[in-house]
Amino acid sequence: MSELIKALIIGIVQGLTEFLPVSSSGHIVIAQEILGLENSEQENLLFAIVLHFATALSTIVIFRKDILQIFRGLFQFKQNDEFRFALKIVLSMIPAAIVGVFFKDTLEELFSNLRLVGFMLLVTATLLYIADRAKNTQKDISFKDSIIIGLAQAVAALLPGISRSGSTISTSILLGDDKNKAARFSFLMVLPLILGATAKMYLDMDSSQGNTTIDMEFLPLLVGFLAAFLSGLFACKWMIEFVKKAKLKYFSAYCTVLGLFVIVYTFV
């Protein structure tokens, strides 16, 4: 299989699963195992930076109005809805940011465990099934809710196979929040973390590279970027509609089947 096709597949997987509640980290681990990627550590890091930036860009495009609202709220320093919403986003980011800074080595070790991915996909399936059965409300996300949702995101960051969007959306719905607001909040709260993780990966690559050069062609990077960006646009808009229509059970069934397949695969 050519490097371009591999880059295309990985890009689509990243773009779709970053927003769909099926665990992007788990799918990337599975895709890398199946495709047998043999890039160097530096090349994998560069490719990850490109894909993360692509999904961040797709989020910015979809939620550009909401992002402007957050910035207006932060810098107006007035006790209005915009400021409170921006503050909730900031609060929700803190737990995952702490996990990323202080548990980096643990994350790298866990994310190489394919069997763990399989079991955590079953956990994701359970969360989605329970959330799907919850009644929709018109309730806004409170400050307390934003912290709890942030903790759910931190757990998802620690365990590959636990879907970030699945866990945060499900947690918000189970707290009684409006489903549409839960989905939008979930996608907005992860944007700064994606950008932060991308910047950190770039700094790690720059500091560890030294005098070595990365021998990776430009075209696979471009193909991966475009695939992740375009599929991310599609998945983000599609996911919001799915949550509003209470169709999380389909993703629950998918995660169950994939989780069982992965577990069996690791034993066989």
Structural description of this entry:
With about 270 residues, the protein is an all-alpha fold. It has one domain (about 5-265). Helix content is about 80%, strand content about 0%. The longest helix is centred in the C-terminal third of the chain and has 31 residues, at about 180-210. The chain is globular, with a radius of gyration of 18 Å. The model has no long low-confidence stretch (mean pLDDT about 80).
Rg computed from alpha carbons, rounded to a whole number of angstroms: 18 Å
For the largest beta-sheet, the strand count, sense and barrel status come to: none
Average pLDDT for all residues = 82
**Any idea how many domains?**
1
The tally of beta strands, per DSSP, is 0
Order of helices and strands: HHHHHHHHHHHH
Distance between the termini: 24 Å
Low-confidence stretches are: none
Tertiary shape: globular
Q: Strand share of the residues? A: under 5%
Helix run count: 12
Share of residues in helices:
over 70%
Q: What class, by secondary structure content?
A: mainly alpha
In brief:
The protein is 80% helix and 0% strand.
Structural features:
268 residues, 0% strand, mainly alpha, 12 helices
How is the topology of this model organized?
Elements: H1 3-17, H2 24-35, H3 41-62, H4 64-76, H5 81-102, H6 104-110, H7 114-132, H8 143-158, H9 164-174, H10 179-209, H11 218-244, H12 248-267
